[in-house]
Amino acid sequence: MPPSAHWQQRIDDVLRVELGGVVDRTDAPWLYSSYSTRPTGAPVPPAGVGAVDAIEQIGLLDPTQADQWRARMAEAARPRPAIEVSPALRARVHDLLGEAVREARAARALGDARPARLSALLDALRRLGLLDDADMRWWSDILYAGEPLPFEPRLERLERSIAGPPERRRGLRILSLDLFDRGVFVRLQIARNGRAEDGLVHPLGDELEPDAPLASQFAVVRLGDDVGTAYRVLGGGGGSGGTARRSDGPFVWHWLMAFAPHVPEGARALVVDVGELQFEVVL
Amino acid sequence: VSGLDVDRFLAGYYASRATHGPLSPELQGDVSFVLDALEELGLAEPELTADWRSLLERLGRSPVEQELLPPEVRGRASAYLSTRAGLGTLEVRRALEALGALSWRDTGEREPETLAIERVVIAPWHPPAAIAVSSLVVYARAVDVNWYAGLEPIAAGDGALARALPTTAAISLEDDLGTGYRAFGGNSTMPGDACTVAARTAFAPAPPIGAQHIDVFRHGERIVRVPLA
Question: For residue A187, what is the nearest residue in chain B, using CA coordinates?
């Protein structure tokens, strides 16, 4: 029986991402060369075709669909032809970048310091072939000219660490708050067991809300205290150790966020908001 | 533009940021910003960008809550994977997992060591050194060391960032029972404005029952002794 429209969409999405990987390995090979573990001289399997073969073999693609996907994968593996950019389009690209730089500078003046989105645009336009190396140098110079990045003095002195509450909600637990001379780091973990052989997801021992959906590792994290300090996010990051992409496996996400300023004397409790969840840590 | 294939570009651009996993809101914002720019430049029709925005939305869902295909299909997928070996296996497995045709248990992987927490141990205050250790997180089969290292403020574009990053390989552990700890993982981040690297290095095994303390070393220099008893 052919898969439902829902599953057909999912198959299409999975293969589109595979196809994108083939395109990326073809058009940006410098991103992949250093990670290759293929023995010298070993045959190169046709990129993306393995996924198509597998999905066909388990009965979710008919032979015609599979052949169409194999043809698309083969096409994606061919080097991209050089493009010709008209002077008019080139001028529009530079106008657009000029406007984006002005907006980034205005945002920076308001405290939104990182021009990451503009970097994404530069990267995209270079990949498209609309900017060359000389253009990239020109725009990088314009973007950063005479403006030191607005780094705070580093968080130099770790003054005190406090363990978070010993319970977990929706998979999320505040591990600790690390109080520095000029800011605070909050360490968090999101974890949930995988589906066991009996088909159930057994809650971890410290979980208070085992039946609620797992907290998002992309939720906005905020910090507050009982004396009304306005903490701002300095940045943060996390990692999964590879578990984040499994469909029903165990999930672990180690995560931390940095805030400024430091916790003022007189504060007796910190409050960490993660999306809809709130945790209080008594100082 | 002669020769320009925007759909191809978007496929590669997207894949360079995520492989079957959800994109963070920041990366989704980046991709959306690029889609806006392509529309504004007249390089992509709204139908094409709407299609990619829709894909972004669908693939942004948490994988642990995605449904699985019926058991008979998963059985076929597992059987097919068992016939494969060598080159290309990873690609096949990844695609089948993303599709919901393969359960993580089918791949024979064990649960990660750093899942269920037994306790969090705050490190005692210690004088400034190359790194500052803030806490240990003890699991049943592992222990995480949470630590920080400062960086000099860096001028824009001087390329010093990579050189300044400390390495987690420099961290080692010893306890009073002579347990042989082996570092097996971890992660680190440098929040944009903080000029401080925050890191986690994971070691196995967990400290054995009866261990009184763990010493944390960096390049052989003891940074702090953390009581466990």
Answer: B146
Torsions phi, psi of A133, nearest 5? -60, -40
Are A237 and B154 within 8 A, CB to CB?
Answer: no
Count of pairs with CB atoms under 8 A, one residue in A, one in B: 333
Coil, helix or strand for B223? Answer: strand
ipTM of the complex: 0.72
Give the model's pLDDT for residue B165: 46
H/E element holding A183?
Answer: none
The alpha carbon of residue B180 is apart from the nearest alpha carbon of chain A, in Å, by 23
pLDDT digits (tens, 9 = 90+) for A209-256: 998 888 887 788 999 999 999 998 877 877 776 565 566 778 888 998
Most confident of A96-100, A167-171, B108-112: A167-171
Per-residue burial over B66-99, b if 16 or more Cβ lie within 10 Å, else e, is bebbeeebbebbbebbeebeeebeebbbbbbbbb
Whether pLDDT at B21 is above 50: yes
DSSP characters for A106-174? HHHHTT----HHHHHHHHHHHHHTSS-HHHHHHHHHHHHTT----PPPP---EEEEEE--S-BBTTEEE
- Distance of alpha carbon A43 from alpha carbon A40, whole angstroms: 9
pLDDT over 50 (residue A79): yes
Contacts of A194 in chain B (CB under 8 A): 104-105, 111
Any CB–CB contact under 8 A between A16 and chain B? yes
Calculate how close chain A gets to B20, using CA atoms only, in Å.
Answer: 7
Q: Which of B87, B98, B153 sits opposite A153 (nearest CB)?
A: B153
pLDDT for residue B27: 73
